[in-house]
Amino acid sequence: MKKISMVAAFLMVLALATSAVAGPRYRFFDGKGHLDPAVIEALALTNEQTEKIQALNETAKKGIIPLKAQVTTKRAEMRLLWSQTTLDADKIKATQKELQALETQMRDIRTDMRIAFRKLLTPEQTSNLLAMGFGRDGRFKRGHGHGENKWDGRGKGHDGRNPGYQFGDCPGYKR
Is 35 helix (H, G, I), strand (E, B) or coil? Predict the structure, then answer.
């Protein structure tokens, strides 16, 4: 039984580590790690700024990818420890502290990247960045936001029951 659970844990770690190789995905970057052209245009970034931001992203990826793999391993260890019939509290707490330390290291790398990114921008670009909704949590705010009702800005539809966008609910619509 123990051999089966160890094999299962190893396969789980392998599968999750493989997905971790994809690296961090920032909203300013596409899935391949390239800066979104819409962001370049909205902030009016120069070629030099774009290259430096791209380099910051690559550096962050190189630091985060091995940490993500370690986090995946530690989480699998934690699940294994919790699934035992007799719990080892000291091992659980030690693994938890290791997991927290790894997550803190990843947050530090992301924070350093955000700080370096902001230092590259001019005051006007920083104003545009904040106006676009980037700031508090490091993500680019997308979408239409929340409306005033429980349907998040959507109307009731043509028959009064089904939620759907109505002409009056669309942002920027003028009659």
Answer: strand
Closest CA to 77 of 55, 94, 60, 101: 94
Residue boundaries of the structural domains of the chain? 2-138
pLDDT digit string, tens, across residues 57-107: 999 999 999 999 999 999 999 999 999 999 999 999 999 999 999 999 999
Residues shown for the chain: 175
Q: Which residues of 4-39 are buried (b: 16+ CB within 10 A; e: fewer)?
A: eeeeebeebbeebbeebeebbebebbeeebebeeeb
Show Cβ contacts of residue 149 under 8 Å, excluding neighbours closer than 6 positions.
Answer: none
Largest interatomic CA distance in the chain: 69
Report the topology of domain 2-138. Answer: Four Helix Bundle (Hemerythrin (Met), subunit A) (1.20.120)
What token pair was written down for 127? 């104003």
Residues 6+ apart with CB under 8 A from 82: 92
Alpha-carbon gap, residue 126 to 58, rounded angstroms: 22
**CA 40 → CA 45, 90, 149, 163, 171, distances in Å?**
5, 50, 34, 35, 24
